[in-house]
# Entry
Amino acid sequence: MTNMDIYSMYKTMGIDEKVFNYCQEVEKKLTERFQTIDQIAEYNQAKVLHAMQKNQLSEAHLFPSTGYGYNDIGRDTLEKIYADIFHTEDALVRSQITCGTHALHIALAGNLRPGDEILSPVGKPYDTLDEIIGIRPSTGSLAEYGITYRQVDLLPDGSFDWEGIRNAIHEKTRLVEIQRSKGYATRPTLSVEQIGELIAFIKGIRPDIICMVDNCYGEFVEMIEPTDVGADMAVGSLIKNPGGGLAPIGGYIVGTKECVERSAYRLTAPGLGKELGASLGVTASFVQGLFLAPTVTASALKGAILAANIYENLGYHAIPNATEERYDIIQAIEFGDPELLVAFCEGIQAAAPVDSYVTPTPWAMPGYDSDVIMAAGAFVSGASIELSADGPMKPPYAVYFQGGLTYPHAKFGIMKSLQRIVEKGIKIW
Ligand SMILES: *Cc1c(COP(=O)(O)O)cnc(C)c1O
# Structure
């Protein structure tokens, strides 16, 4: 099998030989890094499998429950599997959790009481938390329930402001919110090790403070998770990494028995908690997606690294850069040019398995102060573990690129983005 054998298929799909050869050259230099990622995936695959075997996952667990969902053994087994993978006492993994934002709200609202204060020691949290916390006034925000918020920014070099954090902790501080991924901010993503140091510092001041980690986009990128380094709770979305591309909806909260129970009481109702919540047939997709999640995450990670290397080589600013350690699956590339940003997204869309014939166009989106272009042709609507890209139409014209259920597909998407740029006559080489 030669490169040209592979190229024959890509040629049919509109990739020039020059684009293909260029990507092959860049990819060749990444062999060692990709090997490390495969090893992490191998470890995490075994971790997931072990949890499934230990809990005797059975065919009967894959069947749906309806109505109240009392005694749904499949749902309960899935939650035990999550708890084992994250090394926590308990877990809440539900289709009734709409998305990551909802999971974060349940965890916060369930565990905080009037008079409590939230501290974010890593700067401003993800945008959708603004209205939950009440950073931007909103109906039903935690602020309306008398829960206050304080924030300590990271220092200019991206490190923790230890002194500032110490000073921000007082008797009202009840919960510390630590966001692992940078999301769409410019700060660096935190490693699990860094999160561990931060938690140890906070627990050293006040051991009773709940340390909660927004784990979105970080699951299975490393061999350990935040709950392995002292987090009382980790929270995330199933249409990102842990759903493995198969979960059609859902979110999770893993953590101590008390934290999970309080969250469950908030999700359903006080007194009901985890006992209710029919699975309606999604358990099979949840467990199968979880089974695939380590290799799917590895594929997305390799795609991100390939994109960083290809575009950095061409002179664009990649964040994280071509050689940096990775702690989440998000890749940003600053194009500094609206035409390039649009062409990149058009290429990603053209590479999609669903809606490949659609042309993405910049559009006004709620919550954004400029038009935004979004490329996604996903099996699960809005799933960002699937190959997708988006960017606000304003300087520095950065595209945020993430996902890829398989590495070959992520690679094809990157080739297609470059192809589109070349076709539009933009001088790039
Ligand atoms: C995606 C994300 C969220 C919110 O998840 P949704 O499923 O989009 O609601 C929260 N925090 C971070 C860091 C994220 O990446």
In short: The mean pLDDT is 96. Residues 3-43+291-423 form a domain with the Aspartate Aminotransferase, domain 1 fold (CATH 3.90.1150.60). The longest helix spans residues 283-313. The first strand starts at residue 90 and ends at 94.
